[in-house]
Amino acid sequence: MKKGKRLTAVILIITLFMMLCAGCGSETRDGTKKSDDEKGSDGLTTVNIGITPYSMYVIWAIADAWDIDKDYGLDIQLSSFAGTPQGAQACIRGDVDISSACVNEHLACVETCDNLVNFSPCGDFRGFFFVGREGEVASWDALLESHDGDIEPAKEERLNEFKGSSWCVIPQRKALIVDAISQVGLTSADVNFIEFADDAKACEAFLAGEGDYYTGGDQQQMALMNMGGYVNAGGTDILGPSGIWYDTFVCTREFMEEKYDLAKTIYECQLATVDAFWNNTQEAAEVASAYLTEITGSEYSVKDWLEMQTEWDIYVSLEDAEKYFFNSSDVNHYWKGGADYNVQLFVEDGTLSKPVDTEYYYEQSEKMFRDILEDSEAVDKIESYKTFKAL
Length: 391
Description:
Elements: H1 8-19, E1 45-51, H2 59-65, H3 68-71, E2 74-80, H4 84-93, E3 98-102, H5 103-109, E4 116-125, E5 130-133, H6 140-146, H7 151-161, E6 166-169, H8 174-181, E7 192-195, H9 199-207, E8 213-214, H10 218-227, E9 230-234, E10 245-252, H11 253-258, H12 260-278, H13 281-296, H14 302-312, E11 313-315, H15 318-325, H16 335-349, H17 358-373, H18 376-384
Parallel strand pairs: 1-2, 1-3, 6-7, 6-8
Antiparallel strand pairs: 3-10, 4-10, 4-11, 5-9
Helix pairs in contact: 1-4, 1-5, 2-12, 2-13, 5-16, 6-7, 12-17, 12-18, 13-14
């Protein structure tokens, strides 16, 4: 694998991010701006949140629609951004308090903006899987069944089957494949990558008969599976470290330090909304799909959103955060493992000129989470939303 190619998209993200440093302000959906300390006559504190057009981040549209924010003394104002760099820059300008990101894109930005830090985990993304053609490769479920449900021998057999295979992908997906096959001693030299500019083009080529496998965008993967003739050749069970992605929100260190009580309240509201979501999934899907359709200008169906948020990208609840994201004894899911691994990839590829201190970017969000866990009143209120009924 040639240096500088594997994470081309992330390099472009950094370039765009630097260009945006002199960018203009952002506006809320109604065209107004409000500071995060502004209170209305109802005594609510205005919170400005940046949303990128992906399924998981609209958790705040749900909190707003169901007035969960009001119960926490907050008045949420949502601003939409095309991607992580635009939202992160809005954080730095002070236009928004928090904005959506993911571990990989967040770490790619911190070399340019070193006061950007993690705010909270939002989604545990397990949506990547390898798509093969029916009749040419057994589905992962069928292979697992042939091994009586024993993952390790099935995993070893499947990964070894990839030797000599060809893949329709965009450059930044290559790490998923290389990390997976490295578990059985294979390298990038053992597979052939057919590279494309975007996931849609890679999927179109795969549909036209190119390559043995495809992996890429959620919508493309789901479309292939829905049309028939294709199989899930393996996902979470066989992926390496780069196959586990967390969707997160970011903020500035100044916001976390200087407005800590407000930050803690915002995170508590997010956790409460996650609990409310699981008790009202259909109603949540209707709110979320309508919001995504509005900000993207294209139809985002209720069915697709619900499938994504209940199968592929699971919202991180209070219990999940404690068990996985903030659990240092779980080396596969603890934030530091994934963050350090991706920093290593970025340095090797030249995306980062030197390693970054991941503890700097995550330690405050972990402290905030620990403070919530120790606040019995806060925990009780969050958990009360497990029985919340959306009107």
